[in-house]
Write a structure and sequence with these properties.
It contains five helices and five strands; from the N terminus they run βαβαβαβαβα. It is α/β, with parallel strands linked by helices. Helix 1 crosses helix 5. The model has no long low-confidence stretch (mean pLDDT 94). This is Response regulator.
Amino acid sequence: MSTYRILIVEDSLTMRQLISFALNRIRGARLVEASDGMEGLKKLSMERFDLILTDINMPVMDGLKLVSLIRSDPGYANVPIIVITTEAAQEDRERALALGANDYITKPMQPSKVYEVARRLLNVEQ
């Protein structure tokens, strides 16, 4: 069975729990959490991840800066990134996707939507 290492970067504990609940449905998922972009970068430097989910509005380093830093690392050029945010404006979505995010989910989000997008990006069978 495959193991999927997934990093969740989100400053809200409640949102991290909700995202974790959705992703735990993926067989073989191993979840790691970070509460801001800097902590997320540290975790990325310590181990390899197969999928990254990040909020935009966070203290210390926001999610868009995190996405651009991840995409500037050749080792993470092809790792899927999902942005989950309250920012619903079309220009925010376009900016995140232009920086290298693979998908963009607005809050309030449905756990089933997070699960489906993650499963698709990881190429996981149902």
